[in-house]
C-alpha cells in the first residue's frame, strides 16, 4: 500500500518537469565585474590620469589642461581633484566597478587625486607606487634665485 502511494507521487512529477527545473538552475549566470587600471602621473606642472583595461590598452585619458585649467592652475590640488572625479565618473558609466591604482611622480597633489578616487563609487583593489627614484643619476637643476 505504501509503495503504491509513492509510485503515484512519482508519476505525478514527469521527467519533463525535472528537465525544466534543471534548465532553470543551469541558466543562472555569474556576472563578471569589470576591472580597470587608473594610472596617475603627477608632475610639478600638471596631473594626467590614464584609464586602461587589464591588458594595458588605453580606454581614455584626462588631464588638468583638458578640463580647462591653464598655466599654474593645472598644478593645484583642486585641479587634480576635478580630474580624478571626472575619471571615476566616466569609468563608472562605462561599467567598471573595481580598479587598480598606479601612482607615478613626486607632485604634491597625488594624494588628493588618490583620495578622490577612493571616495568614489569605484572599489580600489590594489595600489602601486611606480615613481622612478634615481640612485645618484643625473645632476638636478640648479636652485632658482628670486
From TrEMBL:
UniProt xrefs under SUPFAM superfamilies: Translational machinery components (SSF53137)
Gene Ontology CC terms, in alphabetical order: ribonucleoprotein complex; ribosome
UniProt entry tagged with the keyword Magnesium: no
Top-level taxon in the UniProt lineage: Eukaryota
Biological process terms in GO annotation: translation
Molecular functions (GO terms): structural constituent of ribosome
Keywords for the protein's UniProt record, in alphabetical order: Mitochondrion, Ribonucleoprotein, Ribosomal protein
Family: Belongs to the universal ribosomal protein uS11 family.
Protein name (Swiss-Prot/TrEMBL): Ribosomal protein S11
Protein's gene: rps11
